[in-house]
Amino acid sequence: MRCRFLAIITLSYTPLIYAQQTLYKSEQGELSAGVQIQTATLLEGNNRSGGAMKQNLSDVYGELTVEPNIKAIINLPHDNQLYAGYSFIYSAMLGNDPSGITQNNVLMPLEKTDFTQIGYYPYYKDAGLTEEKYIGWRSGKLLESWGENAIDLSAGAQDYKLGTGLLLANGSDDGGYKGSYWIGSRTAFTNTLIAKINTHDLKLEGFHLETRPRNPATKKNYDGVNLEYNYNDIVTIGLSYINENNKGHRRGIHEIGSTIDLGYASLNNDVYNMRVNFLPLPDTLPNLSISGEYVNQQNKITLQPTLDSAVSQRHIAQGGYAEIGYKFADVSWQPTLSYRYTRLGNGFDSMAYGFKTWGTWFQGEINGEFILDNSNLITQVGRLILTPTERVTFNLIYLNYEFVNFNLFKL
After folding, report:
1. HSE (CB half, 13 Å, CA atoms) of 334?
2. In 108-181, beta strands by DSSP E
3. Residue 356: what are its φ and ψ, rounded to 5°?
4. Peptide bond into 137 cis (omega under 30)
5. Domain boundaries, given as residue ranges, for the chain
6. How far apart are CA 359 and CA 225, in angstroms?
7. What is the C-alpha separation between 324 and 351, in angstroms, rounded?
8. 151-210 pLDDT tens trace
9. Distance between CA 11 and CA 366 in Å, rounded?
10. Is the pLDDT of residue 406 over 90?
11. Which stretches within 251-397 are classed as H helix?
């Protein structure tokens, strides 16, 4: 069944990026620092398409994020290196955005406490939190026959993206008491362990990732392996296995407003992922590309009441997309046309998908960011990109939504 959403949105967005400045550099290593400042003001008419929550939300709201960072490199023999980085994000929001996570003058269960406390969210919400804090080692020319930097080992709080980011890209929640949901500057996973081997046309990765949600009781772990093969930059194939679990973060079951646990819930999902990206006619039409991805999830949730036996719920969910695109490289403004069909089935776990370019993978301005989730959803996207200069890009995007099961969605 199809559903239409109508809202009028005016957006002002300003990113101020100050490039990394080298503070120290020698044969022994390098130290650099930088800062990124982002602001956004949004004006919206017919908030949430006129839903009942509209009166408690802001027609005008503003966001701000400031992210300073510092990075260091220590050079070792054979050009291998130790590296480290640290960044901190201050984020703020004035008003209440269409997510409805916070509402004006409404007594609400507070997400930060796993809804055990009831209270009011302030009109101005802000938070200052560490974003990245990592250390790593890369092999340089130590294994020269494998290629430069064939091995890369890292740990800490850092970014990680699998493929296009359909499953893994965004390790942290914004919005709510943190502010700045729309800008979405927080993306790093925490307590990560990432091992990468890149040798010639093969890439092998193993990883442990932990999320940083607004509600700490919903924290998840992702343990997985990823294998990719690239053939002459014509075909890239990726295969991944991910175990999604909440080991060490088992969630208590309780009534809203109560701190008394009535049991607990544990999560243990097995996820299989296959990706492909290729140029079907590399000699005659080198700017024609086709890509696709398939996901099979075998999801298992175990509910263990305090005074009763455990109950396990098993569900197999599937999802994926297919996309075709063509770039008219020899035409003024280099227009690029693309079409993408995505189906994410009923019960599909959207995991930690992320925003990297317009249309991937928050599907739609406002609707795709605040209202819809990557589950129980069929989306068709038509897109035209125009690039008059290197620093200016225009996007014209058409989205059509259809729910796999409309009865599961409530506006």
Report:
1. 9
2. 108-109, 118-119, 124-138, 151-158
3. -125, -40
4. no
5. 8-408
6. 26
7. 25
8. 999 999 999 999 999 999 999 999 999 999 999 899 999 999 999 999 999 999 999 999
9. 11
10. no
11. none
Q: Which DSSP category does 250 fall into?
A: P
Specify the 3-state DSSP secondary structure of 142. Answer: coil
Report the SS3 class of residue 122.
coil
Place of tokens 């992922």: 273
- Between CA 355 and CA 169 the distance in angstroms is 8
8-408 under CATH 2.40.160.100, yes or no: yes
| Coil/strand/helix, residue 216 | helix
Instruction: State pTM to two decimals.
Output: 0.92
What is d(CA 191, CA 133) in angstroms, rounded to the nearest whole number? Answer: 9
The length of the chain, given as a count of residues: 411
Which pLDDT tens digit goes with each residue over 284-307? 999 999 999 999 999 999 998 988
The dihedral formed by the CA atoms of 77, 79, 80 and 81, expressed in degrees to the nearest 10: 100
Nearest to 148 by CA among 199, 195, 196: 199
